[in-house]
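Continued from yesterday's entry.
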Amino acid sequence: MQARDLNKTDTLALEQELERLMKGNDTPFSLLMVDVGDTGQIFVRSGAAASRKVLLNIAESLQSFCRTQDRLCRIGDDVFCILLPGVHKKGHIALAAEKIIRLHSAANGKSDVVFHSVVRIGVVSFPQEGGDAASLIHKAGIALDSAKKTGSPYVPYSPALAQSLIDQWHLKEDLAEAIADKALEIYYQPKFDMASRRPCGAEALLRWPSEKHGQVSPKIIVSLASEMGLMHELTGFVFTTSLLQAAEWPGIGKQLGLSVNLEATSMQQQETLDMVAKIFSIWGNSERDLTVEITEGALVADSDSNFERLRQLRLAGIGISIDDFGTGYSSLSYFRTIPATELKIDRSFIANMLESDRDRHLVEAIIWLAHRFGLKVVAEGVQSTAEIKLLTEFKCDVFQGYYFSEALPQKEFCRWLARYKAPKGFL
């Protein structure tokens, strides 16, 4: 295609060219599927003319890359394909991909509007991968999808990639069904108050014990639910289920507070925040505190808007905890305005504070600073008596970790509460 002819998509012409080369059988080649980034954001921000100019710069850079025998075509809004006859060795493909990446970066620099994008490339080679023209394009698409998900600049196709994609499709289908059927589970890990030496709360943790896929990581569950647009439903399930189950806790469990994680994407959705407040108004009660845990990284991004959203939750009577504190881009300035009630020190600092003077001083300083701003401090990942002694010296408020208990499903957690005794060595 000519670089200026951006309105056409040439998938059919590409298939015909692939079939012509494949019939010769003596001309190996590679097909590179190139995603140039979301140019639609420029259309929204700066209009059609600016968007077209950026896309034209990118297309011209790809055209300059091509040799006389190569073929360039556009097959989607932000996706181009480059057919490279005679190129099929790994080293040559790597050089080609790296050159495209350099040219793409230079093309972005020519634009009058700011456009930050990273090019991703999926590669399929013939005769290694065989098949017909449509199959080769499909395989290049699979490789591109893998590059985008893994953050790799370019990814060559392999049968393992295809199987992984199929497995993920099945995982998504089964997860969507599990969310709809409320087949996920909530586990609870207790939190201990330093002053009373008794449980003071529990953190709700999402689990999916799938018969087909085994125990699926919560990070994978959240990532897939986000991809499928099911985070609202998943968040509603977690908050509703944990509040209902907390009402069943026996003995000391009746006085325990409940902590539930809220993902960064959910915090950006006013509809989701309204839902959380409504769930708490329906299923919560005056005897049990509900705290929403937000990761520090999610909090710092667009902090003014996020703080306002969190203030809405505070007005609904819900506490706010800064989770994984110290692992994000900590800023002392946001302590002045953050509507938080609690701060959780990340396990990585707790684990090293006995051996590292730096980590020990950091933990002590974080606790002191948080207290100066009226925040309760939770140390997560506590695993030894020595850690408890040092944290007690630093006047840490709450402990959480395997030293006391791992996260337990509802029935086991209720039994644990019913027979609770303070562990030996817990000062």
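--- second protein ---
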Amino acid sequence: MKITQGIVENIIQNELNGDIHTFTHELQKLDRLAGCKYEMVDAHVHIVDFNQKTTGLKNLLKYMDKSNITSAVIFWMPVVKIWQENEKQRPNYYLDDDNACYYYSNTDAIVAREYLSLTKQEQKRFFPLLCWFNAMDINCVEHIIQTYKTFPGVFYGIGEVFYRHDDLTHMTYGEVPRMNTLATKKLFEFISEYDIPLCIHNNITAPGISDYPKFLHEMETIIREFPKARVVLSHCWASRRLRAPYYTKMIARLLREYPGLYVDLSWVIFDEIISVNDVSMQEWVDLSEEFNDRIMIGSDVLWDAFEEIGVINSRFNIFLDKLSPISRKKICVENAINVYAKSKNRVEKNKKRTYPKLAELKK
């Protein structure tokens, strides 16, 4: 339908009783959907899709500027979707057909190339993470070190590493990825040694089991053994079709017990768990006030939907309005910077954690 002046005048007259000020006010509401009304560092952005395609970081910057997003934590996609000959149309998403995915070795190079093509000023707005490796491979740390050395000065950490990931778990070649393995221990030793953050996707339970957190013990086995590790739980452990009882209380317990644990509120966590009703919203407001230095917000937007980043993040306005100004500033901006910004060049320059000697502790 073509929008004409007559249609607009009818809307003003019939729906808004001829009040042009009310009409202008309603338009301003729509303008707010262009982005979060609070300045934000988006803590979860994929710049490629499951075909490893991207429209580029300069394109992302354009929509960040329109959406009140100052910086972004960016990563790629550790797997690529197979296009088999029996499929007439190329799949863009891992659920577009029943065919498998496999780990894609070039994804970090795509990210590094995009990042290095930016000006120095533009680079300051991004925190790239590296992500291509099989989390079940004990060789993964060797690959990570090699990637850091191949692209020095690019990466600020590791992620988003896929462990338990609903249907994608069963659609990826190789062993079913889980956290309580020797390979993951090697990875956690590495991030603890160099004090670099690790962003992971690990579902709280399986899609068919909603009465208890089936995979909770897998993660706790590891983070309990490595208390110095800084770990960001993508989507605050949520995923499609996943429900676990006492969700908010479970997250609160984990944050209390493990000071190196962080969460990002992205993807389905807001729509399916936080904003279900007034009670759930208030529970998450209370939790966010208590742990205001451990929570971040992300869009989880993909490469071909950068224009949606503002609309996605604007959903959080109603939640952020309820927070204190101090908590809101930390969750929107400061926490992501504190977690990621200090980790650049630590591996390339061999900046390992230093601990006091026993003799010094006895003094």
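Strands lie at 40-46, 69-75, 79-81, 101-103, 126-130, 157-162, 198-201, 231-233, 261-265, 295-297. The CA atoms of residues 17 and 355 lie 71 Å apart. Will compare against the first tomorrow.
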